[in-house]
Amino acid sequence: MRTNLKKFLWQWRGILIAAPSVTIIVLLMRSIGFLQIFELTLLDRFFILRPREAVDDRIIIVDITEADVRKVKLWPMPDAVLAKLLGNIKAQQPRAIGLDLYRDLQVPPDYENLVNLFKTSPDLLKQEKPVEPGYQALRNLYASTPNLFGVRKVAGNIEQDTVSAPPGLKYPDQVAANDFPWDGDGVIRRFYLTVPVTKDRALYENEATLDGLGVKLALTYLNKEGIKPEILDGSQQKYKLGKAVLVPFNGNDGSYINAEDKGYQIFLNYRGPAGTFPRITMTEVLENKIPPQLMRDRIALIGASARSLNDLFYTPYSIAQFGSLQQMPGVEIHANIASHLLSAAIDGRSAIQSWSEPLEWLWILAWAVVGAALAWVQRDMGVTKKEVLLLSTGFVVAGGSLIGGSFLAFINGWWIPVIPSLLAMGGSVVAITAYVAKTAKDIRKTFGRYLTDDVVANLLENPTGAKLGGERRKITILTSDLRGFTATSERLPPEEVVKILNIYLGYMADVITEYKGTIDEFMGDGILVLFGAPTGREDDAERAIACAIAMQSAMIPVNEEMNKLGVSPLKMGIGINTGEVVVGNIGSTKRTKYGVVGSQVNLTYRIESYTTEGQILISQSTLDAVKAKLRIDGKKQVQPKGVKEPITIYDIGGIDEPYNLYLNKQEELYFSLSEKISLQYAVLDGKHVSDSMLSGCLVELSAKGGKITCESGIPPLTNIKLNFLIADESGKPSEDVYAKVIEKKSDSGGFYIYFSAMPPEIEKMIENLYKSISSGH
Predict the structure, then answer these.
(1) What is the end-to-end Cα distance of the chain in Å, rounded?
(2) Which of 35, 57, 140, 452 has its CB surrounded by the most CB atoms within 10 Å?
(3) What is the model's pTM?
(4) Residue 766 Cα distances to 202, 672, 673, angstroms
(5) TM spans, by residue (predicted)?
C-alpha cells in the first residue's frame, strides 16, 4: 500500500503541486476583486445569450414616450392630466397600479397663468398656497384607490438625493422605495426586497425598512392568489413565497467581493432586454384607446422611457449589440422585479443562485487539476502538427466544456465561477510547463545534446526509470565511426583531439536529436544510436536512414571547421541494422547507464566496419522495415565474424518522401602512374595488425584511393595498413597509411583500395601526385 501510494504521488507530483498552488493564487486574485469585473461581464453575456422566455402578460407598462411629453406640452404633467391617466387605468380594474414618477409637489395646469396671477394679485404670495382643482382630484383618487402605489427615494444624501412620497398616499401602505443597488460598473443586477430606512429618514417610529415598488406590486398581486411571505424556521432571513424560497444576497456571493449588501437584496433574474413587457402609451390611455380587458387583474406600471426624463439604467442587456449601449427604463426594471417574484412564487421559475464559497473553491481546484493533467500527461509530446493539434484540441474541448456547462447551469438558475476556473486551468498548464522545465533543466542541459528527450523523460518522470533491468524489443540500431581517426589523433595533442571530437559530436548530436534518435553511447569517435528505445515508433527504420544521410551531409560543415583548425578532413562510415535486443538500465546500483545488449548490436558494428568514407550500409532486416522508397547504390554479400550465414548489405544513397534526402556521390576515376610506387602492407584483423608483411606496388591512383599489384589477392572489404617504400635520407619506409580493399575488380591482378587515413605529409604527396596525372587527361 505504501509503495503504491509513493508511486502514485511520484507519478502525479506535477498535478499535486501545480493545481493547488495555482488555485490558491487565483483565489487570492479573486479575493482582492481583480476578477470581479470579468466575471460580471461574462454573467451579462450569459443573460444575452440564453433563450428568450415567454412574455409575462401579468404585467403591462403604461409608457411615457417623448411623443407623450410633447403632447402634454408641460412637464411634470399637470395634476389634472395625471388624475385622468390614473382614473382611466383604475377603470380597467387592475390588481395593482404602480406610479413610477416622483410626485411630492402639486403641479398646476399652466405655469404661465400662475405667474401672471401672482403678478396681478401679489397678496396671494402672503396667503396659503392655493390648491388647484386637479391636485384635489388627484388626492381624492389616491385616497379611493388602495391598490395604487407611489414611490419615495430613500437612499442618497438626505438634503439633495432623497424625494418624498406623493402627498395623499397612505404611508407606508401605498408607498414603495424607488432605489436600486448599483454595481461598480453602473449595472443593476440586484434589487431590494426591502430598502433600509435610517432613523433620520424614518417617517414613523421604529420604521426600519420600506418595500421596493416591484416588490409591493408583486405582493399585492400574490395576496389575491392566497400567497403571502412566510418566515422559514423562525429565521429572519429566509422567506417562503409560494413555490419560491427567498434568500438574501451576501456581499461575497458569486463573483462579488465585499459588495454593498445592506437591506434585503436578491439577484434579479431579468425576463429579457428592454421592450420585453406588453406596453401601451400614455396618450392612448388618456384618450381611452385601451383594448378591453387589457389591464384587468394585471399589474399596471406607469413610467417613462422618454430619454429627456432621464429614467434610464444599465442592465446586463446593455451590451447586447457590439459598439452600442442599450439602457432600460426604470419602470421596466420594476416590471422585471415584479415578474421575478410572480414567476418564482406561482410558476416555480428558478432564481439565480450561487454556490457556497467552499464549493466554488473546489470547482476552481477541479479545473486547475484538469489543466494540470492535460499538460502533465502530454509533457513528453513532440512538436509535430498532429501532436500540437491533439494537445490544442484537448484544451479547447476542456475550455468549451467549462463555458458550455456553466451556461447550461445558468439557464437552470445557477451562477458558477467561469473566469477563475479558466484562469486556474490555463495557469496550471503554465505551471506544469515551468515545473517540468525547471526540474529537468540541469539534466537536460548536460545530457540533452547527447540523449533524446525520451531517455531524459524516462529517468526524470518515471519513478522506476532508473531501476535496473531491461525488456526485449525490436529496434533499429545505427553506429557511426570516423575512418582512420585513431591514427590522426596520435599525432595531435589530447586537447586538440577533444576539441575536434566536440565539434564533430556536437553536429552529429543535433542531427540525431532532430530525428528522435537515442544516443546510447559515445565511444571515442564512434556513436551508437537507438531508434525505438525507450519510445518505439512505426517509422524507426526510416528515421534511422534519414538520420544517417543527414549525418553524412553534416560532415560538410564539420570539415569546414576542421579546415579552419588546419586538420585533415574527417571521414565517417555508418552502419544500420534492425533486430531484437534487450534495452534498459544496465550496470549496478552505484553506476547505471541506459543501454542495449544483444547480438544485433554486434552485427551493426560489423556492418559499419565494411563502410568507406561517406558510405551508409544497411542490413536486409532494415530494408524490409522501411516503407519509404530508397536509392540503393549497390549491394553485397558478406560473412561477418560470429555470423553463421552470409548476409546481404545495401549501400544507401538516398530516401524519398517524406524526407527527400540524398547523398552526392561522384564516380571515382583512376589514372595510371608513370612510375610505380613500391609499398609493403599487412592485413588488419579488427584492431590487430598481422605480423606478415606483404609486398606490392601502387600502379593507379584516384582522388581517394588506388590500385595495388601484389603476389596474392585480398578479399574485398579487408582493412590493411601499408607503408610506401620511398627512398629518403633515412631510407626508412613512410609512416603508416590505412586503407580498405574495395570490390572494384582488377583485370590485371591486384586489388583496389580506398584510403582511410594518411599522415599529412603522405596525404599532401598523394594529392599532388593525383593532380599531376589527372591534369594530363
Answers:
(1) 83
(2) 452
(3) 0.61
(4) 116, 13, 11
(5) 12-38, 361-377, 389-408, 414-437
